[in-house]
Every structure is written in structure tokens, then in C-alpha cells.
Amino acid sequence: MVGKWLFLGSSALTLTLLWSDAGIAGTTGKVHGFVRDLNGAPLPGTNVLVEETRRGGVTDANGYYFILSVDPGAYRLTASLVGYDKVTRKEVQVVADYTSTVNFELKETAVQMSEVVVTAERPPVEPDKTDSKYAMSRQDIQALPMTRSLTDIVTLQPGVYQTDATVIRGGDPQDVAYYVDGIRLSNNDVYGRQFTGINKTAIQELVVISGGATAEYGNLESGVVSVVTRDGSQNFHGWADFRYTPPGKKHWGANVYDNPIHREKMKWDDRSWTSETVTLGPGPDGKLGTGDDQTALAHRRLPYTDEKGYFVEGGMSGPLSRRASFIFTGRWTRQAYTLPGPALHTPPSFYGNLKLSFDLASHFRLKVGQIYGYQEGYRTGTNAQRDLDSNGQNVFLPEGSGAGKYKLTDNLTYLALTHAISPRTFYEIRVSRYRTTEDTLDVPNAGWNRFGFPLSALPKKDTDGWFNAVPAKAVDVLLSQKNRWELKADFSSQVTHGHFLKTGAEAVFYDLYYYRYQSLNPGARQVTFVTQPGNLPHVRRPVRPIQLAFYAQDKMEFEGLIMNVGVRFDAFYTNTRPYNSSILQSPQYRWLIFHKDMPTYPARWTTAISPRLGVSHPITSRSAYHFTAGVYTRLPDLADWFYEVWSANLPDDYVPYDAFRGIRSQQYMMSAFIQPERTRAFEAGADWNFVSDYIAGIAAYYKSAIGKVTTLAARIWVDPTVIGGPGLPYTYVWGRKPNAYQDLKGIEVSFRKKFSHLFSFNAALNFGWANAGQIGSNATLFTPDSSYVADDNRYYDYQWDRATGNYVKKSLSEADRKRLGNVANTFLRTNIFYNSGAMESNWFQLVDAQKVYGAPPGIVGAWQPAYGGTLYAPKGVDRRTMANIQVFFQSPRDFGPGVRGWNPIGDLRANLVYRVRSGTSVTYTPPDRQAEVRYRPIEATVDLQVEKTLVAQGSRDMIFYIEVFNLFNQRDSNIPFNYLYYAQWGLNLPTPYDPTFQQYGDYNELTPVSISGVTYTGRYGASAPRQVHLGVRVNF
Fold first, then answer.
1. Same domain assignment for residues 106 and 196
2. Where does the signal sequence lie (predicted)?
């Protein structure tokens, strides 16, 4: 929790931090229109003012005005001209990247000035919508009180996967770009995860673009999630939300300690069994077998169903001066685990958002922000923590994890400057630093070897030999720091009435290292790292790649036609010299500690050009259709370029001197030749306000992704010392290769009603087909010839000299060199060439290893184009149908019958959310035909929230609410264990003649199972039983 206080203290210093992260997205909108008199004649020289911002525009000779760079939100616009009544339009909604049209008619007055106030309304169908964009204002988000986080809101939008806010239209999680106030949150920098810790009450506007993103958005293939956070106000006010989760069983089936998973191995009636004790470890004296050893009962029921849950989010906003304001929000949560885990409740977590806004002048704005996230968790290992794995054998393990804990911190600090050079032109500059750190805490171990590495150990059983009583000591140490600094500049100009030009450039500077040492059992060790080549064993020396980009786009607005035309150029410089893969396993380099001495390739540039086109055709004021086409490129995760994995199937203490010496088997290598992934996307859609405030939308899309990077490229080394031996004559190392492809297509349907007549609703229906395949792996074979083997400077090994305590060079004798040279040449003749001198291969194609791979002289290269691969089949995220329905009801304060001025059903709000989705795919082979793809059963839930305002005094109020998740207690099955039984007989249980089922019952009722990368709690883990939450929300 120290990080929380560091965040609060460091917030005051954010003005001095001018570092940066990633690309900038559209965070402002535009207002334009005409001012005319009652006869329709233009009124040049009219002042149009956005009252809340002190910014505005003046009409030209045709009565046309425009106001650029307006933050999203609701405003009052005033048009005034001497000799005419002033007219004010209130509730003018501005949406990021959209144009709000606000026209005025002024009445001439001769005697006394008067003011006319009119409520403005956005057009039911956005005429300049050239993409599939779904925008939610702060008011829309407040109409979804059940949602607690950014991801909860995002997953309700059309095109978004219901169980993963980073999957849009069937793409991969890394394909989506998340932006906060124009800052892209990187998710491709070494095992990148998408940070989404922006507090709900900090959001001013949320935009989800499921298809057709313009050229200003980069490094993506699927979609965009863009958040604009709130500015502070000129009045002090605060808010708080507290939610309480009562205790209770949160899973289906019997209590964990009485479940059939244990097959009657529980002996609660046996006194000797319930009183058995176990020694967990030494006491304060550090020695086992003494009186202060740590002991505990071997079998103990934990009251896991008595755990309560808490959620708190609050904030404050107010002025710093007449032209400056602040807003701060914080969120903390602690929830009970569904099943007994390393603890009975989740570890600490905290998320904080701070923003300072400075309106320095009408044409000059400055914003400084900080977003902070802190969370702890438990590392896992086989039999290392309390869970129901291994047929329930770990259910009695003590609190904590035999693999330790982790601490993960995210910290984004940014500065945004907007300067209007003229009414037609402005520029924006953003700088930011985004840092992610991960560390390992409380690592239990079975001791330390003489070189300072922790030792692992197997678990210890109880007296019966079934339940694990002492956890395994699974060593899993991870240290990582990722910094992203970026400078981004954008220039925007309303060149003419019909052309809005926007260009920008950005430079992202990465600085990161990653180190993970694992020994999950005494017989295996593995080290994974990202560091500068040549720095081993100093793994904390970071790699520093550079990413550059430039884009230009023109928004052309004509009568009946709006076009967004743009192009984006991206470049990536590795700024690191990767190891020469042609000699990875040559004897002198195969040991990790000497790997640093290898020759390297030059650092490389990769580039990509992405054209984008979007067209909108407003048919009427109530209907429009759009079309988009574009190329989208994304850098693969930086781990694909830079990470290495080495392992050894040897005991922990087999490290002759250097900590890395015993690790000689390289599994994965740096990959110097991969390119950005590319997706070609097309879309056509329409929106129609068919009656009143009911609006329907539809979009059909197709995406073709090529060059998706996978681990299917091998570098094979043929070593003369093992040719002719009992095993294979070669060793190989895997690299990364862009050889996977995806075809994604579908239809999105939306149906929405704005709030009126006491209610609003949004409905989204997605039909999608997400398929993928791989064209096969490839391999390059490197074989030394006799000239390479004969050179003592290129072919040698090392051995440990006990006398000096150092490694010494181990050279071959002349006889051995001659013999091994003959072996190498014979192998080349018989396996690589048809006959001596013929440049053809039996199963490989010869390649110039010196030219293509930079191999030293004497290395013969042969390339195998492709082998293996996978069939074109549904992806794991392929769910053919998903639908969301959200309904919001709100009654006026005086609604319904009253008792002494109190209306029981007045000021009452209800929010209902219905989700339904088809099951994930499974391959099934019927008895009479070939294999086919089928889908698991449908999953559906209904959630309800009802809240009532108890106290309302001006800006102060208190609201009580109750939330019910899975209102109808629907129990859905994911059919994880045997789809064959379900398909043939409709069974979701083991067959009736299964003797284990007959004797004990459903032994898989709580067995954890993973389907398409998601772990479910047993057979019915697709949904949880009904849960009720109580809460109170206050504003002051």
C-alpha cells in the first residue's frame, strides 16, 4: 500500500514531468453552423460563444461559423449581434471527432435587447459518422450504475467480446488500442497486458470504434477504446460510492469440503485425521526439528463462505484558481474468492486518477494528468497453493503460495498543451511517461544453493498420502520494468469550409528489461529475459527500441457527402543488435554465460504504410450510410523481437560456478526478421432514426489479417560431435515467424432509444465468424563444413578448471578436427547435396547463409520453406452470436402517490442488463461423416439494479441501491469434459455407467477447466449463482 501514498504525494509534482508514452487520439470535437435572420439572410459578424469555455467564433460573409477543439460534454452556445435578440442554445452535446451542427435564427429588435433560450438536440443520426463508433457521454455512463469499471462498460458495446474488453470483432487482445486523453496505453512491450484502470467516475466520454478507425489511430488491427477524462469544476464537490457484498457460497454444487471431487477421502468423523498436524517450516531460529517450528492442522475447514466483499470509489473536484481546477478519483476493492485460494479474499489493489486543468487564455489550454494502478497477487505453481487442482489434493494447503507473490504498478504521467493560432488553426502537443514495474515478493524456498539461487521442493503429503499438507516450493522470480517516453504533436486546420486537415507525428522511446527465473520443481530450471545482447548476466540493462509515426488526413464535408481520407506511416527501429542465429548452438556459444560473446546482426528498421478511407452519405436528416476501407498495421509484442528462453533439466544446485553455467539448452531466440502484422478491413453500414427517438444501426464487416506472429521458426544446428550417435544429429532453437492468418467477418446490429418518457435502452446484437490458421512452420539448417571445424578460433568449447576456479578454453586435437571435419563433409554430401558439388537438397533448399543470415565462412545453410501448419478453423474467441440489452428507468421526484411530501416511487432508478451468447466452438466427429465444428450451449444472465434517492438537498444527495447479479439464478454449463456425451445423448454429466460417478456423484462439479484460454470453476462455471450487493452513494 506504500505505492498509494507515493501516488498521492507525487501528484503534486506532475507539472514538472514532461515524458510521454504513445500515440494521440481524437479527444475534442467541432461545432459549426449558420446564423441567419428570420428571412433566411446570413448575418456576418455574429459572435458565437461557448459560455463554459470563453471560446467562440465569428460568422463569415455567408453567415457560417465554426469552433474547433471543444472538449466533449454539454455546453451553452450564445449567438449575439448588435440590433438582434441574443439567442442561447443549451445542452449542446459535443462528441470527440464529430461535428456538432448548431444553427441560429436571430430576430431583429429596435428598442430593448432580449434573450431567447432554446434546448439543443444532437441529430438522431450523426451525418459525419464514417466508421462504427459508439460514444457514451457522462450522462449515458451514469445510466449504467451496475457497471463498476471501464471494462464493464466497454463489453456492453457492439462488436466487443462480452467476457474480454480487449477483443473486438474476433481479433486478438493485442489488436485493440486503448487511449486516455489521447495517450495510448501500450500493450505490446514484452508480454504486454492492457491496463484499463481508469476509474468510472473519472470518465467524461467513452468512445468505442469497432471498425473504420481513421489514420490518427495507429498500432492496432481491431478497434479503439478512447477515454476522455473529466476536467475539474470551479465549485468544490465530492462523491463516494460504497458497495457491500454479503457472505455466502459463490459457486454451484456442494461445499468445497463435502464435494464429490474428493471421492470420499474426507474423514471428518475420524478424530485422528482431524487432529493430525504437520510441520510447515522452521521457526524464528531457522532450524527444523526445534521447539519453535511452525506447525498447523493438516486438515482444517476454512469458513470461505463467510467472507464479505467491499468496493469503494470516491473523488473530489474543485478550483485551484479562477482559471485552474483539479479532479481526483480513487478506487479500492476487496472481494471474496469463489473457492478457497492462497487467501480467502483478493489481495490489495488501488487505482487513482488525477487531472489538473489550466485555462491560461481563451486560446491556450494546459492539462496535466496522472493515472496510477497498484495490485498484488499470488504466483502459482503445481501444488504450490491452495486450490482444487490435482483432484482436490491442495484444498488443505496453508495460506500463501509456495511460488510467492507479485507486485504490479502502473504509472502514467502526461501533459497536454492546446494552442489556437487562429480561429481556423490550432496545434496540440502531448508528452508523457508510462512506467510499468513488476516485482516478486515473499518467495518461499527450500533453501539456497551456494550461488544464491533459491531451491525448489516437491510438496509433502499427509499421513494418508493423498492430500498435500505442505506446499511445493516453486521458485518463480520475476523482475521487470518498462518505460515508454513519447512526444506527439498534431496540427489541425479548417482550411476551407469543406476541408478540415489534420496531421501529426510521434516518437516513442522504449526502455525496458524483463527477467524471470523459474524452477517449478527440483529437476528443471528456466530463465527468460529481455536485455541488451552482450550484457549477461546483467539482465537489468534495458533494450531501447524506437517507434516513429506520421499521419495526414482530410475530413471533407460537403452537402450530402462526408469523407475521411488519410494515410499513416509507421517505422520501428530495434536499436539492438540481435545474436547471429546461424551459430547459436556452436559449442563455444551454446552455454548461456558465453552466449554474450556471439557475433550479432545490425539493428534493423521496419516500416509500414496504412491508407484509410471513410465515407458517410446522409440520405436524410434521419438516416445515413457509411463505408470504410483501410489497412491497419501493428507491431508484434516486443518480446517477439527481443526475448530469449533457456532451460536445463538438471537439479537446482547443478551450477558449477556461474549462476547461468548449467543452463545450456536454448529454447527461444531473438527474432530479427519479423515484420509488422497487417489487417485489411472493409465495412458498410447504415443508421436510421425510424420513429421518434428510436434509432437502429447495422454494419457488415470483413477483416483479413496476415503475418500474425507465432512460434514456428526453427534454427537447426548440425553438430559433427553428435552425428552418428544414438540421438538426433542436431539441436534446434525456436524463433518467431509471421506465418498465421485470420479471417474475421460479421454483422453488428444496434438498437437504441434516448432517455425520454421515463426510460432509455440500448441493444447490441453481434453475429460473427472468427477463423484462423497457420501456413506451417519453417526451419533453417546450419551445418559446419570441415573448414569451420578445423579453425580453432571458431570451433571450440569450455571446461571448468577446479584448480583456478575459472573456465578455460577446450580445444580439439588435430586428429579430432580431421575426424569431425570428415564427418561434417560426409553429412553434407549425403543429406544436404544429392552428390558432391550438386547445389540441390533432398528435403531442404540451399540458401546463401553468408548473404542471408550473416553466417561466418564455413557454414552451409539450407532452408525448409514450410511444413506442418494448422487447418483453417474457428478461433478460441469464436462465438457466433452475442447480444446485450440495457434498460434504464428513472422516475421524477414527485412521481406516484406521496405521503407527507415523500414519494416512495419518486426519484427511483432501475437498471437491467441482459446478456446472452452462444458457446465456444468444439470439433466433433459424428459416426457417419467427417469432423465438423459445433458450439457449446448458450450462456445467458440477467442483472438488475434498483436505487432510490433518500436525501436530496441542492447538490448534496444520498442514494441507496441494491444490485442482483444473475437475477433468475440461471445455471449454464460450458460442457468442458466430454462434448461427445452431450452431442450424442444430451448429457452434461458422466455416463450413468461410469463407476466413479455411480459411487461418488459428479466428481467434476468443481474441477477447474480451461476453455479457449478462460478458466472456469467446474462444470457449471459459465455463470455464478445469484449474488446480492447493497450500497450507498453520496454526493456533496
1. no
2. 1-25
